[in-house]
């Protein structure tokens, strides 16, 4: 019998508890807990669709065992903002037509958030490098890179990180 362990996660500021086998990934656990905004692509670290912030750092949740995330702050794309009060990245992605099917976008936004937190004024090359672990089969990337630059400018104008 597979042994399960109780794990309590802090997701977008909310405490979430579940029982999971030791080999369960953070991606699987988050989706089982209803966080289907975290997308499942390759499940081997190639596509970035599953990216979340763990203590502010973007990680591939498909490569992270859930128990290693206990007690750490997990942020999904939903934790950044909502339709009434979108994060500048969410607003820029929506307004610039950066999403087509949208499947890659939660991971793209998380990777971009991680970039802007450490570099508020990235050049195009910085954006390309930061998103190089995130694959998109629809857009050709140009609109995505533009959206990140637009959001960076908006955040600088606001005068802060958020
Ligand atoms: S699903 Fe995690 S990197 Fe592709
Ligand atoms: S918008 Fe479809 S995979 Fe990126």
Q: Main traits of this protein?
A:
single chain, 162 residues, alpha+beta, Ubiquitin-like (UB roll), DNA polymerase, domain 1, five-stranded mixed beta sheet, 5 helices, 33% helix, binds FE2/S2 (inorganic) cluster
Low-confidence stretches: none
- Please compute the radius of gyration using only Cα atoms: 16 Å
- Number of beta-strand segments: 5
Instruction: Give the biggest beta sheet.
Output: 5 strands, mixed
- Gross morphology is globular
CATH class of the largest domain: Alpha Beta
CATH architecture of the largest domain: Roll
CATH-assigned homologous superfamily of the largest domain: Beta-grasp domain
Strand content: 15-25%
CATH topology tier name of the largest domain: Ubiquitin-like (UB roll)
Mean pLDDT: 96
Count up the helices.
5
- How far do the termini sit from each other? 45 Å
Helix content: 25-40%
Structural domains: how many? 2
How are the strands of the biggest sheet laid out side by side?
Answer: 2-1-5-3-4
Structure description:
Helices cover 33% and strands 17% of the residues. It has 162 residues and is α+β, with helices and mostly antiparallel strands. It has two domains: 4-77, Roll (Ubiquitin-like (UB roll)); 88-158, [2Fe-2S]-binding domain (DNA polymerase, domain 1). The protein has a five-stranded mixed sheet with strand order 2-1-5-3-4, with helices on one face. The chain is globular, with a radius of gyration of 16 Å. The mean pLDDT is 96. The protein binds FE2/S2 (inorganic) cluster (2 copies). One FE2/S2 (inorganic) cluster (FES) is lined by residues 40-43, 45-50, 60, 62.
């Amino acid at each position: 019998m597979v042994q399960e362990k109780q794990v309590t996660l802090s997701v977008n500021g909310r405490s979430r508890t579940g029982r999971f086998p030791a080999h369960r990934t953070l991606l699987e656990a988050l989706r089982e807990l209803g966080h289907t905004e975290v997308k499942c692509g390759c499940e081997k670290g190639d596509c970035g669709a599953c990216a979340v912030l763990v203590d502010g750092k973007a990680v591939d949740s498909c490569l992270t065992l859930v128990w290693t995330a206990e007690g750490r702050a997990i942020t999904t794309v939903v934790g950044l903002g909502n339709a009434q009060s979108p994060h500048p990245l969410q607003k820029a992605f929506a307004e610039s037509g950066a999403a087509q099917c949208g499947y890659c976008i939660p991971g793209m936004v998380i990777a971009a958030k991680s970039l802007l937190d450490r570099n508020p004024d990235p050049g195009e090359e910085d954006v390309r490098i930061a998103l190089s672990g995130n694959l998109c089969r629809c857009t050709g990337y140009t609109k995505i890179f533009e959206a990140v630059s637009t959001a960076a400018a908006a955040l600088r104008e606001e005068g802060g990180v958020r």
